[in-house]
Amino acid sequence: MNGRERNRWQGFVLGAAGAMAGVVAMRYYWRAVSALAGGDPRAQAGNPEPHALDSIALFGDRREEGESSTAAMGRIAYRLIAGREPESPETRATLSYLVHWIYSMLMGGLYGALRGVAGPVDSGGGVALGLGVWFFGDELATPLLGVAGGPTSYPLALHAHAVGAHLAYGLATAATTQVLHRLA
């Protein structure tokens, strides 16, 4: 910390800014995987036979057909605020992106506030961030909230790709946050 006291608010802001690089890294991960696989793995059909853990939603499935978890959350938030469903596909897409960016920046902000100044690369913090967001967000919270299917509703390969995408997010967020800490 170079003799300075830790400022958690500053860490939060720097982590949120670092998360912007994390989201971009995640996007490039999906582009690379899609190019190598000949298509986006997220567009694959789910498992054909029903399994007990296809849904672990506590309050029922809140998704519409073909809707991602961020799109479902955006649509639900819009309905709560505006009192009606978003009408255009453009509005729904924008809401999905907003949810993804806001959530990612919140997680990056928490990383920055809690981690503070670490090593120049902080690969340990980046891996912990990526795995934490993947497990607690993708694998646990969104299925429990009913905005994503349960663990058996997606092919195992998609779970593995989701880990890779979140590791790219975590490592890029941590590295950028640490650079920003040194510049601040």
Question: Can you offer a commentary on this structure?
Answer:
This protein is mainly alpha-helical and 184 residues long. The chain is 66% helix and 0% strand. The protein has helices spanning 8-37, 69-82, 89-115, 123-145, 156-183.
Give a quick set of tags describing it.
184 residues, mainly alpha
- Helix percentage: 55-70%
Using only C-alpha atoms, the radius of gyration works out to: 18 Å
SSE series = HHHHH
Number of helices: 5
The geometry reads as: globular
User: What integer is the average pLDDT?
Assistant: 93
Give the low-confidence spans: none
User: How far apart are the first and last residues' alpha carbons, in Å?
Assistant: 11 Å
Q: Major β-sheet, in short? A: none
Backbone structural class: mainly alpha
What proportion of the residues form beta strands (DSSP E)?
under 5%
How many DSSP E strands?
A: 0
Task: Put the structure in a nutshell.
The chain is mainly alpha-helical and 184 residues long. Helices cover 66% and strands 0% of the residues.
Layout of secondary structure:
Elements lengths: L7 H30 L31 H14 L6 H27 L7 H23 L10 H28 L1
